[in-house]
Task: structure prediction
Amino acid sequence: MANIAQRCNTCGRTLVKMPGSQYEVCPVCTTVNLFNQKIKGRVLFRIGQFINAAASQYQHELQRQPSNRGKKRAVLCGITYNGHRKKLEASVHNVRSMQQLLVNKLGFPNASILVLTEEESDRSRIPTKRNIQAALQWLVRGCQPGDSLMFYYAGHASQIPDEDGDEIDGYDEALCPLDYRVAGAILDDEINATIVAPLPHGVTLHCVVDTCFSGTLLDLPFLCTINRDGLYKWEEHQLTNKGTRGGKAVCISACADDQYSGDTSAFTGKAIGALTFSFIQTIENERKLTYGALLTSMRKKVNHAQQVVSRFMPCASSMPQEPQLSSSKRFEIYSEPVII
Result:
């Protein structure tokens, strides 16, 4: 009997039904996929056993994630979307570069950094929706005053019509996990509820989001915008209270909610996110940074890259327009020192 090809209902991975089997467990997301809907009671019982086994295995994998004890921990997520027509070549390189910065410059222990890319051998580290959600929950679980948390994301994002009336522009911003076509996107509402709202007093969260439509991706209440003359202003972006429990959340994103970002080789000759490179270079090379100085330096580096790209490719338009700064705190954060 010939084998029957089918895709996983959750992540889209191609599965193959072997002769005599009614189901297959996806090796990436552990979803049980049925090949025959007319299944006897004994088969359902066996499937239940597989589901329980898969759930137990997944919990075991979560327990093997890095320890979240200690002052510093991070989640770094880079999605390449292999096989997609809009594949992102630089995502994994972005993540590795950020990891080096955190370990070598900012003192993050390697054991406290959770990396999610398509290159990981551990299936709990593949950037599916469920794994990203679990990683974000791990990031803030048990955080204590004095902790420094980091979330980094390089991948695709999108805008989705707002259904609960909390967006000024009428759209939710959302991350696109590897399996977004089946599992759906991760809305800014969920990201805020998971890693922003629980932050207690004395905990600091920094997010660096190198993706399109990212200006208010964390739904933080205050957004700093800078015009072409270098003058900044703060805008309130809260129709509902989406702050923290006293902690500080800061997000540095590649562009405004209605703009596109992109990778470039203008900096090093190798594709890397423009926001990622400008952030790393500024943190590594400049001392006593305030958030305002950080944003200004990053803008200069991105503008320089734009000029290089336009010089060689006059029609190019994929570069990010303006790095954005948003915060859970009011306007004085602009002059506060950057401590990660």
